[in-house]
Queue: 2 jobs
Job 1
Amino acid sequence: MNSDCTTYHCPVDATLDMIGGKYKALILWHLIGNTLRFGELRKLIPQATPKMLTQQLRELEEDHLIIRTVYPVVPPKVEYMLSDLGNSIRPILETMYNWGADYLRENGLTVSCSMKFPTKDS
Amino acid sequence: MNSDCTTYHCPVDATLDMIGGKYKALILWHLIGNTLRFGELRKLIPQATPKMLTQQLRELEEDHLIIRTVYPVVPPKVEYMLSDLGNSIRPILETMYNWGADYLRENGLTVSCSMKFPTKDS
DNA sequence: CAGAATCCCCTCCGATACTG
DNA sequence: CAGTATCGGAGGGGATTCTG
């Protein structure tokens, strides 16, 4: 998370601190129901440079929202998946998704990527 | 909002863009069911400098989440209240509040200000 | 009372190049 | 493949001072 405070002014700030990073919501969203490799995330979020993607993934890992698994093979293989805590944040993402989608639609704005509301699978 | 894009990569980003500002969630939260003056908001959010408070309020106004009313009197009197759009975002704040409160409790962290979950009044 | 204006630091983040 | 290292610009945000 971004803030190093052990005291927040508001629980909402604590939540925003964990998912408010530049690409964090997008990463979490893509990881819902999927275990993905670094390269797969890069393709899904091409606007993020490797540096930024790594940084955001590390912060999500520090906050225990995702689990990073390194396989000691050559070539390297690293997988990312949601933790239980990460899964518990899904309702927030969905609530924000629905509100944002309504807002964008009512304002005639568009979404550039193919992300859709996930069917309630795993 | 922070981004000037008319195209988002995700509705969640659009939502975060509107409420993710430094003090925006806190401002919106305090305005739920209350019409407040600038000075009252300053007392409720003392960690925000006047400059930052003004900036965040202006952005919330541009995004039509709040309504700013100026009374042409001396001394100046300005009131802020939630718009219909601002009120519509309340479920998001509540969802984030609940998740954040659970998270902080389970991690033994504390909230510094006296903000509580609002009773479901106006 | 409700801000506007200035100054300035410092972090975020993109671009580019390199590595085990 | 999955990163790391380095540089540098833009702007977020604090402290302070001033004003109608």
Job 2
Amino acid sequence: MLQVPFIRENKDLVITRLAKRNIDATQMINDVISFDEERRRIQTELDNTLAESNALSKEIGNLYKSGEAQKANILKEKTSQLKETSKELNDALNTKSDELNQLLYKIPNVPNEMVPNGTADTDNLEVFKEGAIPVLHEGALPHWELAKKYDIIDFELGNKIAGAGFPVYKGKGARLQRALIAYFLDKNTAAGYTEYQLPHLVNEASGFGTGQLPDKEGQMYHVTEDNLYLIPTAEVPGTNIFRDVVLNESELPVSITGYTPCFRREAGSYGAHVRGLNRLHQFDKVEILRVEHPTKSYEALDGMVAHVKTILQELKLPYRILRLCGGDLGFTSALTYDFEVFSTAQDRWLEISSVSNFETFQANRLKLRFKNSDGKNELAHTLNGSSLALPRVLAGILENYQTEAGIVIPEVLQAYTGFKIID
RNA sequence: GGAGAAAUGGCAGAGUGGUCGAAUGCGGCAGUCUUGAAAACUGUUGAGGGUCACACCUCCGGGGGUUCGAAUCCCUCUUUCUCCGCCA
């Protein structure tokens, strides 16, 4: 959620930057400013009324003390009048504040000036590419065929137990999953991230804190009996660690990592592009998350990108990095880099990581602040990224490492899997 | 699930109708002393709104009520703790 004083002071900039998302925010921004003015006007009026009645109450107390009950009773009548007025003003204030907030929830984050213009994923800017695309043998298969051939993932069994999009990993497939999780966590902790195990269900306040609620509840599984949501990403419980927290400046930056399953309803997404592991209702992901000083968040973003790079280099997978254009940028993000691994057998790029700087957008909702050098509470910046999402990394490994003899396990993973080939 | 107790500032903890945004201790910050540090001493130190700055307003778990006036009384919800039950 954007900060109203920021909007007030940077109206034109906000409108221009939001235009990168291909929206004309002029009306919304003007409304924010006028709603806020109105809100402050009512607030002032209410404050004055309350001040008056506070003063009268004090006076009444003094009159009783000095035994002048009659005078006190006269004043009492006055206060009942003020009470009514303040009740009315208070209702008006609440209405106006709600109106303002409802509007603010609808306004996405202001894109960084580096965000390229564009309307779709085809407009994303490729900023880096590395890794040779392997030449596969005759008859190379997409990963869903390989999964069947080597009996390591059973999509139909998952369908029987839960439904489409809930695969069952078996044997070496299950072990490879576990190996990847352990490997990612080890890489992240070696880079200074503290490992956390987080709840897989969150309450409403947490969903709200990271921006899934309101409006996007349809994307999450909802346990109505207890009003809990299955997490769509570790970002939700991870970032909400810091809800209503004031950190000391010396505690920054905070770097945490965690493995969680992720649950996404992904309503209405069907077709060839969602085959196999490409899109699932339940998948595993290792997330990295940072809370940063506002002056250092972009440096941190670069650091996170560099970190994810090292993992892909070690896995020896062909990948590229995209800077997302305004049309593809997430609601809460100011700048996002996507990592994509090349799926040779499908001949297409698969998104495996998304690393974003949210600046103060999440922190404002979360009330995540730090005490700055002036001793004032200031909103911190939050960032997060996948390091990494499992299914498409797995797809990339299966497809790019396939040989006629079987699927070779990348060298760095062999210590974790305990085997060198799936055959 | 049953019974009881509790929820106050970064933490601990006092405060049962007005002078309480709130004692005290710890912690934090600044200073004195010191070559430096520690100790000691002195001062300072909750948040949000509002204002050029003051004034002023709101907040003692959440919501509602009683009262001229509520941290304090009443109702309700939530959470935590203790005991019992169940249990990986």
